[in-house]
Write a structure and sequence with these properties.
Rossmann fold, 27% strand, four-stranded antiparallel beta sheet, six-stranded mixed beta sheet, alpha/beta
Length: 223
């Protein structure tokens, strides 16, 4: 399955954020999207998910034109930058609602989930809740997943586990994953292809050193 987002234009008032941006992702691969803070990464993902109206956008999943978010369940899943699980929901209920079998049973017994099953979301720390949200999205039915800042607030050892899980979901489960994070090191550890958002457009990188050419990293940075 392939996601293709083309000719993405987005303005906030007279300020252009995206002008003709293009992004693709196929199942079995991990696309790492990097760019400076405020350059439009989250905006691009929200436009693709049809959660944010655009001034121009063509979004297609396997030859099906995506006009609204109602068409996306079963095709695309999205981890937004901010939390998405309702505060009043218990973790056990969240798994029943959003995680299909056999993954639900696996997560119910997961060492990082099981102790919190009977707690409501507001009773769980922000970092732990973010981890659970990541696990839910990565184990969803959707073959293509968009992850916006998945490592935010997560402990270092858990970040390494999420990186391994992202790779496994692409390589073994055959998912296509788009990943963005403010820490580029986590992105390129997980990615099979790296792209950068610069000057309102998306560019494919052949090697990590090109991040210096795009002004994302200083010339003195070690890559």
């Amino acid at each position: 399955m392939k996601l293709r987002a083309d000719s993405i234009h987005k303005y906030f008032g007279e300020a252009a954020v995206l002008t003709g941006a293009y992004l693709t992702c196929e199942t079995g691969g991990v696309v790492g999207l990097v760019g400076r803070n405020g350059c439009g990464k989250s905006t691009l993902l929200r436009v693709i998910m049809r959660l944010l109206p655009a001034d121009g956008a063509f979004v297609e999943v396997d030859d099906t034109y995506i006009k609204s978010a109602r068409q996306l369940p079963g095709r695309l899943a999205y981890l937004p930058q901010d939390g998405w699980l309702p505060d009043h929901l218990r973790i056990r209920q969240a798994l029943r609602l959003y995680c299909p079998q056999p993954y639900r049973s696996q997560l119910e017994g997961h060492a990082w989930v099981q102790p919190f099953l009977d707690r409501k979301c507001y009773q769980v720390s922000a970092g732990q809740l973010r981890l659970i949200e990541c696990l839910l999205i990565l184990h969803s039915r959707a073959p293509i997943v968009l992850l916006d800042e998945p490592f935010n607030g997560i402990a270092p050892i858990q970040k390494e586990e999420i990186i391994r899980l992202i790779r496994a979901q692409a390589e073994q489960a055959g998912k296509g994953i788009v990943l963005t994070d403010h820490d580029y090191r986590h992105v390129w550890q997980a990615a099979t292809r790296l792209v950068v958002l610069k000057d309102r457009n998306v560019y494919t990188l052949q090697k990590k050193e090109e991040l210096k050419n795009f002004g994302y990293l200083p010339d003195s940075a070690w890559v």
